[in-house]
User: Fold these one by one.
Assistant:
Number 1:
Amino acid sequence: SRQCFAARVCNGRARCWLAKRRLENAQKLRNQERMKIALGVGKRELRTRIKVFVVWKTWAPQSKAANTIVRMCRCRIARDECRELARQKRENDAKIRACIGAKEFRIQKKWWGRCKQIWLWESRSRKIALFVKGTWALRHYRELARIKREQNAKIRRCIGSKEDRTKIRMWRGFKTLWIWRKQREAAQRAVDKADALLAALAYDKAYRSMKARAANWLCGRMVMLLARSAAARRRVADRHLKKRQRSLMLDFRRRQRRVYLSKFTDLLAAKGVASIRGLFPPKKQKKSFFSSKKKEEPVKEEEAPPPLKLLRYAPLSIVVEKGENLVAKDWSFRKANRTSDPYVVVKLDGKELGKTLVVDKSLNPVWSFALETEVLEEHLSSSVLEFEIRDKDLVGSDAMGSVELSYPFGEARWLDVQTTKDCKDATGRIFVGCRVGPIVERAEDLPVKKQKKSWFGSSSKKEKAPVVTKTAVVETETEEAVPVAQQRPEEEVDLPAMPTALSSSRAHRSREGLSSQYFEARRRVAKCGVLAWRSHDLGRGELVALASSADAVVLEAPFYGSEDVLLAAAALLAPAASTALTARRRSGKLLRSSKPPKLVLAGEARDLYLDRRAGAACGLLAARGRSTAICVHRARCSVGFGKALARGLVRKDLDTDTLRELALDGACLGPGALSCILEAVMLRTSERQAKPLTRFVLDGNSFNAPTLVGQLKALIGGPACPSNLSLAGCRLQGYAAYVIAAGLGGHNKVN
């Protein structure tokens, strides 16, 4: 074909004999080639191929012309698009000119044109220097750099270097802000017309169409800018959509946390109430008139139990070690990412014995699981051990195959995973085994008869008389005794040792051995009746003497801790000094106080934290009647402090008249401790027959649990209602107002 084309060219131009000769040779060669092809494929196939080639030769110029027309149309569209962009640019220039003035606009435009030209020169010279690496390119690059330096120097001389840098920064910032303002306006228009998702789709579609129309004319820089703007608009739309979804999810999680926290605090409060009520023995139910007239049933003799039967058990040691090449159940686009979360369920004769741990995202898991069980010897030969492999999912699980072992099981070995009804594509193998131990004889376990529970509590009418032997002794009708295992001992407090009344009085009869702090504290007690606590200042004998004559013992932060509370309780519980050493204000001598003093724990500090021992000491003071008031002001208390104080308020040796005030403002008690204290305040009046409190302060505590609100209602409407109940600054739910109002209504009806 090439030779024929060259011969035709020569014949057309020169019409020489050589050209004709070449044309003849080309014709001869073409005929020879056609004969060879005809002999190889046949004349019919040859004619078909020639026709196809002729058609293609005719169609090729037409396709080329059509492509040329298409390119011309595309160029026309691109030219129209370019004119539209130029019109928009003129409008924007007019807006900028109206903002900053025509003269300033011309200066900045000329300056921007020079900068752009220098930038183009610089980019071209850099390309030449990178690709050609010739001396001319380097010389040209240096010349352009020199021209750029001269231009910058001229501009700097005209307006100053600082002004030049300022204008560069202003121009860049103005350009960035202007571009982003346009993008924001376009995004806002799209959001106004439709939602964010449809707007993102519309932006994507518009960008693709514009790119297809302008790609033949616009340069790569313009295409890149269009792509950036479309991506920015898409990011803005996605940001609005994600922000809305994130706010909805956070709101849902916040509501769920509130519900769970309310349930948890209510559970803690109910547990505290149960712990306080457990201190009191259950009351004996009163017998009715009709039940007392019933004839007593005769005492039956206890029947001898049947002889126990010996059974033979075979212990089994089951091992599930590891697996290999298991089937992948978690699908992914990439085949390498397809994994499973396998675990094994061990079954013996269809009954589940145990499960291994779940190994996340592994097809070669290692479980290292061992299980001990036993089976009757007579059932051992027919036992079948099944290892079912499953894939753990978020909800439920998928089957991955199973392995079965029958007796004799044998040592641990590799076994292939078999397909099941739920898993037809099971693969791999697992290393499992079961060893049978020596036979063990053991007595048969007697079945325990379960008592049927009544729908209405304890069915006392249907209960039969207990079956006892003839030697049983019938006890007299007294109050039911609580088993020793269920009886809770009183709270034991390990208080520091204090001197007796005799030794303290001897120590105070003379001034020998007394400290100067003692006389200063004595003057303060005589003046205002308050013993300000400084445990390291006074001796224990001096503390006993002053505590018995003070109206209030005040421990103020940060000069005390739990140990000081124990020391103060020991001083108040110790036998008081003789009346010759105690004086009052009028006579000039220290006389013993007519009523027990108050114990005030005031102030807050970083290291101050009252523990269970301090609460037990305060409860012991309230039970023994050695303190008229226990006040805790803004001191942090533990849960053990509240529970120990509640146990002290309901002790068996409780003094029913002395304690008149209980203040726990700012103690930050938890729901468990707060419920214990509320229940103890009610039980000390109803069960121990103590007088109600005069003042009960619970400021700053949280009553978020429904149990706590119900206790408040019972306290206000019951006989234990104090004369003054303060709940200032407490956190209460909305429904608590109605509950407390109902309690107040009950209180008004009773009183």
Note: DSSP finds 19 helices and 18 strands in the chain.
Number 2:
Amino acid sequence: EDAAMEDADPENVSGASEDDSDSASEDDSDSGSDSDDGDEDVAMPDESATAKIMKLERRLESDPGDYGAHVQLCASLREWPSLRRRLRDAREAFAERFPLNETQWREWISDEVRATKGRRKRRGKVVGALFERAVADYQSVALWLGYAEFSLDQGWDVPARRSLYERALELAGLHFVDGHKIWAAYRAFELSKLELDAKNDPPAVAKQEETVRALLRRQLAVPHAQLDETLSACERWEASRPAKGPTIDPAPIAKAKAEAAARQPLERALAAAEEKGDAHALAKAHGAYLDFELSNEKSGSATGQGSARARAAFERAVSATPTSAQLWRRYTDHLDHVVRVHTLSAAAHERACRNCQRDGETWAAWIRYHARHRLEELGVEDAGAGENLDDVLKVYEECEEIMNRGVLCGPDTGDDALAIFLAQCHVVQRCERPSLLEERLGGRHVLTKARETLAEFYPGWVDRDMALPRLFADAFPAHGAKIWESYVRLGVEFGEHGPRGLNHGEFKGGEYAGVAEAWIGYANRLFESASRPFKGNENEDGSTPDADAASSARAVFKSVYARANLVSAHGRESGQARLCRAWLDFELRRGDPVTYAAADARAGVVLRRLEAEDRERKLEGPDPEEAKRLRRANDPNYKGPKGPGDGARKRKADDDVDADVD
């Protein structure tokens, strides 16, 4: 009758049952040596397979972030048992760079189980560590069941096995469709103990019966697809007991059934999207599910599991769409601001970055979270000098490590790289004396690193909001105007006391020489730098400081307004029109009727001509090539050329294993 309670058997993920004959003597003889863990004396790969493997290894040497190459290399090596050690190294490199999916983890674990046949101690060390890493990557019912079976194979004691089942129930056990399998395995374990107690320790039977009964009651309070079957199994078990137990409380069951009914339409939408293979529909279905669970959590209408159910829904969603940066950001925001448990937030941020390695905002969110948490933990409010500065320095170094990891992953665009650097800049801004912090660090300022990286690896990219030049100038106010000038002119000299990396002519600059907004920023900074509070109305030569500052800025506008090849960072109009408009606006704010008239005679004439040409083009209709470009831009089915990170963003193994590597 107890056997009837096993509504689902744990899946054999580990394959441990194939080696249940491991004896104590074998354990004792296991020295833990890896001497026989290398390549077996079996067939070596043929010439074609060797060439394929070597080509994949070269691909990964040149681009360690090539997900498809990792998948293909592991698949190719797995075909040849003689290359077991190379396969293990390839998998380690893969897992270090990316989270592995359920299938990849199950294959790795299965291979290691076979490799440790007859050596239970080594299996416990190797396979146990793999299971821990596997369940940390994604919440998988199958992997948790395999881990539970592994604990049986290894002879874990009752408290350890019970603790493992409780960990599995926390999130995977809340899976609406498959979670019942974990409950069933847990129940089977407790029933097995009850049977042993009946034979070996009769006084403990009553207590163990209550343990089984409590487990059943807990499951009945959880909304799941098999709730009626669980209730029937519970009733059968209660009827089989010699002594009648307490009556089952119908209230929690009724509530769980109502919540299960509310989730059925959401489950059907998920199943339909998965069956069709429609990524957009799948993302939409998971989004609706998340909205439902978050609403329940907020209203407190869930059955005491609101926060856990919301997390379980997020885990299910990220498992289905692991490279959705927006989804991960929503998840980490929820953990950071609602759940507020540091261990959960820290782990989720790291997982998000491993899944969305080339998305800059994902890395930036991790840096900002880590800095906030650490500063709150240290109780640092105003970082100036002394102990506070030492604390901020530690936080800076920790965040810098995250920043460097993100940059080394090769962000897709300059915008992505900039987002990472700007997050680190905010850590520097926490210090009231950033120059002292920089001196203590003994290296280049993060702003200098950001500028050099963007100029070297993203040539032609433009900071649309001029955020980096503005931050750079604000961080070094004594050199603010020169910093802006260095963006538009080559070879600007800063002298010995300039920002590190720019003070010895190491960086040539001039990357925004053709960008209107950079020239406008330079002119405005010249005016701000040259303007000074003063007590009299005039200098000795009869001019006012504001007049001198305006003249300096005006000279910049005069030098470039006639350049027809200027571009605008925003692209809404030509760069020349943007600069001419900015000059006229400057004269309205800082000049007088005479200077405005002079500017209008130059920039105004050019601006009106450009506006007339623009109106004429609109009347004639768009250029055929431009019209074609616009149609493609608005066509969701058009597949243009791949961007620099498109290939590396593919994550599903099935998309890559058949790619041609010959």
Note: The CA atoms of residues 112 and 127 lie 7 Å apart.
Number 3:
Amino acid sequence: MTKISPYAVVAAVALATNVDAFVGPSPAAKSSSLHMSAYPTSAEDILWTPSWKTGERDEVNGALGKYCEDLYSVTRRKARTVTCGPIKFGSDHPIVRQTMATTDTANVDASIEQIMRCADKGFDLVRITVQGRREANAAAQIREGLFKKGYDIPLCADMHFQPVVAQLVADAVEKIRINPGNFADGRKDFEEKVYESEADYVKEREYLTEAMIPLVQKCKDLNRCMRIGTNHGSLSSRVLSYYGDTPRGMVESAIEFADICRSQDFHNFVFSMKASNPLVMVQSYRLLASEMYRLDWDYPLHLGVTEAGEGEDGRMKSAVGIGTLLADGLGDTVRVSLTEDPEFEYEPCNRLSEMSEARLAATNPDAATRQAAVKKYVDTRDITAYSRRTGVLPEKTEEDKVDVSLFLNPNGSVISSVVPKMLSQDSAPYLYKELGYKTAVGMPFKDIATSDSIFMRTLPAVDDTNARTALRRMMEVGTGVIVPAEELKKNPLDNAVALMSLTEAAEGNGQLPDGAIRLAIEIDGTEDDDLIAKVKDLNPVMVLIAIDPSVSQLHASRRVFEIFNANDIDAPAIHHYKTKASDSNNLALELGTKVGSLLTDGNGDGVLIEQAGENNFSVDFLRNTAFSLLQGCRMRNTKTEFVSCPSCGRTLFDLQETTAKIQDATGHLPGVTVAVMGCIVNGPGEMADADFGYVGTLPGKVDLYYGKEVVRKSIPNDDAVDALVELIKSYDMWKDKEEVEEEAAVAA
């Protein structure tokens, strides 16, 4: 007969009557001696969430349902208020902006100065590294020093491997971040464990419980906040062996630790599901949110893409992950992890929060109007798995004089906006370079990151021989030239792609202007279902989705893809994004949020960025930005992918300087992923998402990884970058940088 704990009986009754189990006196009235008798003290006494793997959770709590408050308008998910010193997390409060100090925590004065700069910048909370007792003592001094200087900004202690130290530092700081992957499981070894049954797996919960309960009791007594912060790169070997390196494993790991907190009637905690891969990150948060809905939990969410990198790429990757979730109404606090000084994280963090708040239907009448203006549709997306809708590319026929099959790329296409003056005899050679062509004696040839097609609202005059020759040369190497049909009627261009609105194409049955080789259709999202369904019969080479400003870009686009799926429309869909941005960082955040949120759903085959108004950016910059978006959404790799941690007090080398050196040495290797980790905490774990790893292990020393395996140890910092290059060569994944040659253009 199965033994049933009396604590579990109490909790089960509480669950059945829809009240919290083990509710006792207020924290101020409790003494530590009461904890031992009032609440579970062992794993067998805890009422664990029913198993997902056995199907018990479906039986007890029903099937997974919604993951956000409203699929058709931006509405914040209802989340309880969690207190962290003077600030509060939850749906009744503004999104909390936070960062992490990069100083050595033991250097109290330097840490205080940096935290004050972060507070002055506008951050609401700062996390600090706590490796051991020395740093725990320093944290107390930092807290006291900040109070003396008039700063009450709350501090969060980042804890790994040290349950006892976590209890000590809880006396000093307002929040404790624990990582379920290593808080009790020890240092990650990737050792595969074999579990014959669910019972074998749950047996090991005892040591988790023993490690966690004292900290939970301490946090409850002191009214501290906790973050249960799962990291894709540092799942325990126990979880990896049972669930795999998956979003499901991340969610189940967090739920276990939440069960321990709840068993002590402690609810002052938030969740996070961080990953360096935005697709994994988005899926994990959505899955956790869906689980919380069916479990009737309402804990706040801390959003972040870990090890995002630096510059526009880091901001883009963060916006893809964070912006996508905020657009769903998920998220109560945000951290943008950049390999830069923490003060520089504020602008993207704040901007993403502002963009999210501007989309909320409840507080922004204009946003509510746009969202309500989207015609009715049924959202059928499956948030438990990523599946990309892939459009069928055009095929070349015998009659075609140019290769239309090269107008788009199966892994995601980039289309660049071009104006006639760029095609002059003097400007054309520079345009070739801006579009990413290689050239030989002035003739353009496509390369790995060349724009697949170009878009021109107006054409050079028919008698402009030089400009027309430049266009012909690009067409001859497989570049599509997309031009509005009305312009082609006035100014014909052989082998151009004629762009028509869907209404225009349907009325004229897709009749092409003279000389045009294929049809492209523009959809603005206001069309009715029957009209959009006609795309199937019109058979365009591509569809440009350019949403009308009167409707919500996110929801109108999702509707279009639902209609495509329902009618088996397989035309490639290109997101046509028009921007007035004048700042490169803001453009990255806009694109990541507004287009990335659709690409992470698997909806879209490419992007066209067009500047509205002033031309603030070069063709080259916009092309590279578009490719960065595709790479950040895990579609098309055109350069080395870097997983780079943002630095903290654990970092064992100058991360920014070292990352720059590694990027300079290895940044020309598309398809290769290099992880640069300042310390061992997440380092080995992140190797699971990288081909090669560069990890600080001892002061002045670096270990190199191939996948999860350490292949070279204790390399002096000065020699490590060269050693990394040699390691990449040894696995036949190296190619030499191409020499850049100045070439004279051929006269037209």
Note: Confidence is low (pLDDT under 50) at residues 1-36, 741-748.
